[in-house]
From TrEMBL:
EC number: 2.6.1.39
Gene3D superfamilies: Aspartate Aminotransferase, domain 1 (3.90.1150.10), Type I PLP-dependent aspartate aminotransferase-like (Major domain) (3.40.640.10), Winged helix-like DNA-binding domain superfamily/Winged helix DNA-binding domain (1.10.10.10)
Protein name, per record: 2-aminoadipate transaminase
MF GO annotations: 2-aminoadipate transaminase activity; DNA binding; DNA-binding transcription factor activity; pyridoxal phosphate binding
Assembly, per entry: Homodimer.
Every HTH gntR-type domain range: 11-79
Family: In the C-terminal section; belongs to the class-I pyridoxal-phosphate-dependent aminotransferase family. Belongs to the class-I pyridoxal-phosphate-dependent aminotransferase family.
Keywords, alphabetical: Aminotransferase, DNA-binding, Pyridoxal phosphate, Transcription, Transcription regulation, Transferase
Enzyme class: transferase
Database matches in InterPro entries: Aminotransferase_I/II_large, HTH_trans_reg/aminotransferase, PyrdxlP-dep_Trfase, PyrdxlP-dep_Trfase_major, PyrdxlP-dep_Trfase_small, Tscrpt_reg_HTH_GntR, WH-like_DNA-bd_sf, WH_DNA-bd_sf
Cofactor: pyridoxal 5'-phosphate
Length: 492
C-alpha cells in the first residue's frame, strides 16, 4: 500500500491519507477484508504523528469503508453490489492448509533445531543446547584480510555462479585437507554443500526410499533421525558402548533387517562424545564389506581433539568405496558460513549433483571463495590450534563445575568435540526439570530427542560447552543446580 504525502500542500495530511486509501478501496486495489497497517505502523512508514493516521482512519470508518476489531486489526468492509450478490450466493470457504500437506510433512517433528537457531545475544537465557562454535573465536582479522584480498583481485568472479558440485579451487584445498586425514581422493570425488546437514539431506533423498531401514548409533544426532523419518525410512538404533557402536548387535540387525545404510559419527559422537576405538572401526568395516552395506560417516568434529591419539576415519579404512564421508567448516570456523563437503565415488557425486541442482543450484560463491583463501593462505591450521586450546579449557571448566555442584551426576569425559553427556539419578522428573531450567534461564537438550523413538525414557541430557562464555558456563550450571534442587523438592 503506497501513500504519497505532499507536505507543502494546503490539504491537511490526514485528508491526503484518507483520500488515497479511499481511492484504493473504491478501485478495489484494497479488497474486502484487506487488513490495513496499524496506526503506529503507518505513522512510522509515513513519518507522521500517530494522531494524524488515527484521524484519517476515523474519517474512513465514518464513511463505512473500514472497521476495527480487537485481535483482527483495521480492515476494509466496503463492497459493491456485485460483491454483495456474490458473497450471498457463494459463501467462500477458507483453504485448510493442513489438509494438503504431503504425508511426510503431516508429521509434527520436534522443532529443536529451529529453537537452537533462535539463540540471541540479547536473550538472557544461557544456552547449553546448540552445537555451535564460540562466536568469540571467529577469526575476524584473518577473514577481513581474506575479503580485502578477494575484493582487490577477484571481485569480478566472487558474485558469479559456481559449478553445482562446487568451486574447483576450493575442492583442491579440501583434497589437501583430506590427505591430512589419511584419505586420498581427486576433486571429482568431492562436492561442496551448504554444511553437512545439506550433504546428509542430498544423500538421503538420492538413496533412501519409503520403508528402507537405516541403522544408526543409539543415541545419535536428532537431525539425521528426523531427516530419515521424513522420507519414510525405518530408523533402527544400535546400542553403543565406550568403544563406539556395538558391532555384534549391528551384525545381527544387518542379517535380520537388510538395511539400506548405516549412519555413524565415529569421532566425538553427538550426543555422547564417545570416540569409536581403532579396533571397533576395523570391525565395523569388516561387517560393512562382508554384507555390502554402505556407511554415511558424519565427521563434523574430527579436527577438534583435545587429548588422545588421532584415529583414521572410516573413509581412510575404506578400500572398496563403501563410505560416503561428510564434514563441514561450520563447527570449526563459523556456523553462519554454511560450507561443508561430501567425499564419495565419482559416480555418486555426479548423481548427487543432479539432485542438488534442483534445490539451491550451488553453495554461495562468496562463501566458497572466502573459505578457499582461508585454507590457501595457511590460516586454517593456526585457527584449529587456537580453538582446540580454548575448547579444551572450556570442557575442563564445565567438568570441574559439574564435579563441584553435581555429586550425583555421571558423565563421559570426551577426548574432543562439543558435548558432555550427563546422567541424572533415576528419581528425577525430567519434564519438571526442563520446565524449571527454562524458567530459571538455562536450557539444554533432553536425551529423548536423540532416539528414533523420541518418547523413550532416558536419564541423560546433552550439554554444549563451546558456545557459552566461561562465566556463562559457571552461572548456567548454578542455575541448573537450582533447577534440580527445586525439582527434587517438589517431587519429594
Amino acid at each position: 500500500m503506497r501513500i504519497n504525502i505532499k507536505r507543502d500542500s494546503k490539504i491537511a495530511l490526514y485528508i491526503q491519507i484518507k483520500n488515497q486509501i479511499r481511492d484504493m478501496i473504491y478501485s478495489k486495489r484494497l479488497p474486502l477484508n484487506y487488513v490495513l497497517p496499524s496506526e503506529r505502523e503507518l505513522a512510522k512508514i509515513l513519518d507522521v504523528n500517530r494522531s494524524t493516521v488515527k484521524k484519517a482512519y476515523e474519517e474512513l470508518k465514518s464513511e463505512g469503508l473500514i472497521n476495527s476489531e480487537v485481535g483482527r486489526g483495521t480492515y476494509v468492509v466496503f463492497c459493491d453490489e456485485d460483491e454483495l450478490i456474490t458473497k450471498s450466493n457463494n459463501c467462500k470457504k477458507h483453504l485448510f492448509w493442513d489438509e494438503i500437506y504431503n504425508e511426510s510433512s503431516k508429521n509434527n517433528y520436534a522443532d529443536v533445531m529451529s529453537r537452537i537457531m533462535k539463540i540471541s545475544d540479547n536473550d538472557k537465557t544461557i544456552s547449553f543446547a546448540g552445537g555451535i562454535p564460540s562466536p568469540d573465536l571467529f577469526p575476524k582479522d584473518e577473514f577481513g584480510k581474506v575479503q580485502m584480498d578477494l575484493c582487490k583481485s577477484k571481485l569480478e568472479i566472487m558474485f558469479l555462479h559456481s559449478p553445482v558440485s562446487g568451486n574447483n579451487e576450493l575442492k583442491k584445498e579440501i583434497k589437501k585437507l583430506m590427505l591430512n586425514r589419511e584419505v586420498r581422493v581427486s576433486t571429482n570425488n568431492i562436492m561442496i554443500t551448504s554444511g553437512s546437514q545439506q550433504g546428509l539431506d542430498l544423500i538421503a533423498r538420492t538413496f533412501v526410499n519409503c520403508n528402507d531401514v537405516i541403522l544408526v548409533e543409539e543415541p545419535t544426532f536428532f537431525g539425521a533421525i528426523q531427516l530419515f523419518q521424513t522420507l519414510g525410512a525405518k530408523v533402527v538404533g544400535v546400542p553403543i558402548d565406550e568403544d563406539g557402536i556395538r558391532v555384534d548387535v549391528l551384525e545381527y540387525l544387518v542379517n535380520r533387517l537388510k538395511p539400506k545404510f548405516i549412519y555413524s559419527i565415529p569421532n566425538f559422537q553427538n550426543p555422547t562424545g564417545i570416540t569409536m576405538s581403532l579396533k571397533r572401526r576395523y570391525e565395523l568395516m569388516k561387517v560393512v564389506e562382508k554384507y555390502g552395506i554402505p556407511i554415511i560417516e558424519d565427521d563434523p568434529y574430527g579436527e577438534i581433539r583435545y587429548e588422545g591419539e588421532e584415529l583414521p576415519s572410516l573413509k581412510a579404512l575404506d578400500k572398496n568405496g563403501y563410505v560416503i564421508y561428510l564434514s563441514t567448516f561450520s563447527k570449526v570456523i563459523s556456523f553462519g558460513l554454511r560450507v561443508g563437503w561430501i567425499v564419495a565415488p565419482e559416480r555418486v557425486i555426479n548423481k548427487l549433483s543432479l539432485v542438488k541442482q534442483l534445490t539451491d543450484l550451488h553453495v554461495n560463491t562468496l562463501g566458497q571463495h572466502m573459505i578457499c583463501e582461508f585454507l590457501r593462505q595457511g590460516y586454517y591450521e593456526n585457527h584449529i590450534k587456537k580453538i582446540r586450546k580454548e575448547y579444551h579449557l572450556k570442557r575442563n571448566l564445565m567438568i570441574k563445575k559439574l564435579e563441584e555442584n553435581f555429586k550425583e551426576l555421571e558423565f563421559y569425559r570426551p577426548q574432543g568435540g562439543f558435548y558432555l553427556w550427563c546422567k541424572f539419578p533415576d528419581n528425577i522428573d525430567f519434564n519438571l526439570l526442563l520446565e524449571k531450567s527454562m524458567k530459571n534461564g538455562v536450557n539444554y537438550i533432553p536425551a529423548n530427542f536423540f532416539y528414533a523413538n523420541n518418547e523413550v525414557e532416558s536419564k541423560f541430557i546433552r550439554l554444549n560447552f563451546t558456545y557459552p562464555a566461561n562465566e556463562e558456563i559457571i552461572t548456567g550450571l548454578k542455575r541448573l543446580r537450582n533447577s534440580l534442587d527445586e525439582t527434587i523438592k517438589e517431587t519429594n
